[in-house]
Amino acid sequence: MKKKTALVTGASRGIGKSIKESLLNEQIEVFSPSRNELDLSSSESIDNFLTNLSTPVDILVNNAGILKVGRYNELSSDDFQEILQINVVAPFKLISGIVESMKRKKFGRIINISSIWGQKSREGRSIYSSSKAALDALTKSLALEFASYNVLINSVAPGYVDTELITKYNTDLELEKIKKTIPIQRFAKKIEISELVKFLCSEENSYITGQIVTIDGGYICK
After folding, report:
1. Which of 38, 48, 131, 170 could form a disulfide with 174 if both were Cys (CB 3.0 to 4.6 A apart)?
2. Range of the domain at 133
């Protein structure tokens, strides 16, 4: 890659940290703001961050997001508003604030980290699935608006990934049961996600835009 600058949200751990490392390995300068610097739950914080952002961004990876699990009578409208703010509205505001410089340079790569739960769902995932489906729809629509400027935008939709969170919320027995539901019979490695993101962010990707790229070991094919 030629010298580029990337902004990656949620890069302190898990998939986001792996994405940051993959981009750094390509000599890309990576900004990964802390929550104190960029609070995605606050539109005011996002506006302030964009106002003070002096470096043009070539690559934007909207990785940060939250998961709220519960049945319809266990969740409130406040829960719904919070998950939509962080998972959908915040990426939209960041894209809107950064894309003009990409359009002027005739180069930009935007990746929204979605989820298989935007394409299928299960009990207790109503508002999370809704937020990821909305993020995918945003990707498709903006791809049409940006394509003529060589600004490509895609969603990457991981399935089960071997991160700290999946081991935190599941017992060893539960983890083994989940693996048996995946055709490849294992969880994705973080680097498998980040290497896909790296390609989609690169100049080697010159034609893929508006796509939901699922990386789940065949899980949603069943």
Report:
1. 170
2. 5-160+189-216
